[in-house]
Design a protein that fits this description.
elongated; alpha/beta; 3-stranded parallel β-sheet; 6-stranded mixed β-sheet
Length: 212
């Protein structure tokens, strides 16, 4: 008899059995417009019961700054260009990281996060720096010359006033700016349904931001 509110952060495979087993609350908080549509279309939840909200970022914690001590800790030169990504490294989340590691070469790529694919990726891409799971993500955002990622991690980098390239498992949207932000916001900056672009797009966009 206690009213329940559920938050919905992603879309998942839907089947008759999953529909039967899934229990939504009296009201739903969806993080983006496409998730609102997903709930309405697949679970027939009335529009009046779905509210689109946003991911909250602690702007006091994620704020502009420098991280020279982190560069020294990681053995990265003061002027060496650094591209940072933050991601789970599991089967359902590491495709965007793989694309980054394949396309962006000649600069230091720092990968923050852990998962079942961590050791395999570390062995396959020895030029990149894999630091594993970290609690001090803000320091990595501040160290980045360019941030590549999606969703909440991209928002955290934005709060640190870093240039962002949106790329992940859901697709590729390129450099985040005034022209691309409205479409990115509609999917919670996940690139869902955006397509994956062409090979070389990521390298081109990173190079552009590093040279600006």
């Amino acid at each position: 008899g206690i009213p329940l509110v559920t938050t919905v952060h992603g879309s998942y495979k839907v089947s008759a059995s999953l529909r039967l087993l899934t229990r939504w609350g009296a009201k739903q908080l969806a993080v983006s417009e496409d998730i609102r549509d997903y709930l309405a279309e697949n679970y027939h939840i009335a529009g009046r019961d779905i509210f689109v909200t946003v991911n909250g970022i602690d702007a006091d914690a994620f704020s502009p700054g420098d991280a020279p001590d982190l560069r020294r800790e990681l053995g990265i030169g003061e002027t060496e260009p650094v591209v940072v990504t933050v991601s789970r490294l599991d089967d359902d989340a590491s495709d965007g990281v793989r694309r980054l590691l394949q396309e962006v070469t000649g600069v230091k790529v720092v990968v923050v996060g852990g998962g079942t694919n961590l050791e395999e990726l570390r062995e396959k891409y020895p030029a990149a720096l894999f630091v594993g799971p970290r609690r001090d993500v803000v320091r990595f955002c501040r160290m980045a010359d360019v941030f590549v990622g999606v969703s909440r991690s991209a928002l955290e980098a934005m709060a640190c006033e870093k240039p962002v390239v949106l790329a992940g498992n859901g697709g590729y949207m390129g450099i985040l700016g005034p022209d691309t932000y409205p479409a990115a916001k509609a999917t919670n900056l996940t690139c869902r349904e955006a397509g994956f672009g062409r090979p070389g797009d990521l390298a081109r966009d990173v190079d552009k931001l590093l040279s600006d």
